[in-house]
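Input/output pair, single chain:
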Amino acid sequence: MTSLPSAFASLTLSVSLALGSTVALAAPPAKAAPASETESPDTGATIEEKNEAEELSDQAIAAFSAKDYAGAVALFQQAYDIDPQPNFLFNIGRVYEEAGDLEKAVEFYGKFVKQPGVDLTSRETALERLKVLRAIVEETKEPKDEPKDEPKDEVVPVQPPPPPIDDSDAKRKRKIMRGTGFGLLGVGAGAMIGAAIVGSLAQSDIDRAFDREDANTLGGRQTLLDRAQGKAVTADVLYGVGGALLLTGVVLVVVGYTKPKPQRVAFTPSFGPQGGGVELRFRF
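Output:
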């Protein structure tokens, strides 16, 4: 007949493995073999140590029922330190699973299945829990934040300051333009004066042609008229050339005193037997 202490120890071990009907809340309990068919592995602990470990296990079951998961883990760990029964490792994993710490549950279930002396049924139960919990842990892992490339400061090339504008050539050209303009003004004025003088002489010849004293013959009168006509043509040409030169001179002087602008002005004087003129071209 089995002694009372031995039967009590076997019953406690079986309850510890399955954690009792009050422990199996979040996952199916381990299917342990009946106490009479299962032998506890020899851990080298004395009877007193085994009894102390079983008392701690009972306290751990009570703490688990009260949802004191930290206390239950601590008590099962103390029991295992005194009597290293594999069932205590399974129970620690079961407590962690109920507490929601699945990674720790996987750790202790893994330790349990590697222990010598674990019966095949309990090992299969632990392996099933490992398979389920590992899948859950893998699915619920937060993706690792990939290191983001820090924005690099863009190197903006420093533009060198523009070289100073050398407008000496432009000044020289404007000076030449002013000088030319003044020269044309002078020549134009001279042409206008000459045109006035020649016109006056032409008029004088016309007056003489109709004066009986100066032109008492028909031949003499025609000669005076021809001379007057030639002088008149010359006066007209001089008037045209003088006017064109004056206009061109004025424009050159004005432009020569004005700073250059984006548009450019080109002057082309033209002369002919019928008079003179100037062509102005603007380029933008």
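The mean pLDDT is 76. The first strand starts at residue 264 and ends at 272.
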